Predict the structure.
Amino acid sequence: MTLKKTFLPLLIALVLAFFAQAQELESLIQQGDALFAQRAEPAKPKEAQAKYEEALSAGEDAFGANWRLARVKYWIGDHTADKTAKRQIFLQGVDHAKKAVELGPDKPDGHFWLGVCWGVYGEAKGVLKSLALVKPIKETMRRVLEIDPAYDRGGADRVLGRVYHEVPGFAGGSEKKSLEHLLKAVEYGPRVGLNLLYLADTYISLGKIEKARETLESILTMEPEPDLIPETMEEREQARQRLERKPFKKK
């Protein structure tokens, strides 16, 4: 009887401690997500990163923390001017995405952000110097298409469309395939500015200038997705800049 009286409170305390730890961890990731939602403010992405790292250190939900770290590394790297620092940040994103893939091989998040971080690292390094990344990027995005083709509002088709556009023909590039993937991406995400920017670039390469103009102009007038307002504001500026260049500039 005495043993039961001693053991029961201890068991209850352990259970309560476990749930308290889980609740605290969830709160850390939620705090990170709330900070990432404010990513238009320069300091917020690094604050979000710190929260995700804190959650990761707690030893729980490593999958969720790692893919979010890959995502925030992508954002921070994309807004870093120094090329060397940019490449290093993207590689850190690659490492976190790889861990997410290991922990959640049947979930799209890790695969998607792995391909994205590889892609932007390749752009920062130089396309011709990064041709070895083309195959693994395509493989990660095809895996996303198998799991959830709508993920990130057509994210896999968006990345594949851009890869086929950027890569030279001798290395597997194809404007026709680029167009196919980007049109599919727009089906999933008609109000995703990056889908439309990439589609416009491919239209230009195919000589479809009026379609490119219409696509760019649609970015300026569309209603932004509520969770993509920071991206949409940047993409509108990019659309304006493109419309000021050849072949759109009036003679």
Notes: The mean pLDDT is 92. The chain has two domains: 16-144, 149-251. Residues 16-144 form a domain with the Serine Threonine Protein Phosphatase 5, Tetratricopeptide repeat fold (CATH 1.25.40.10).
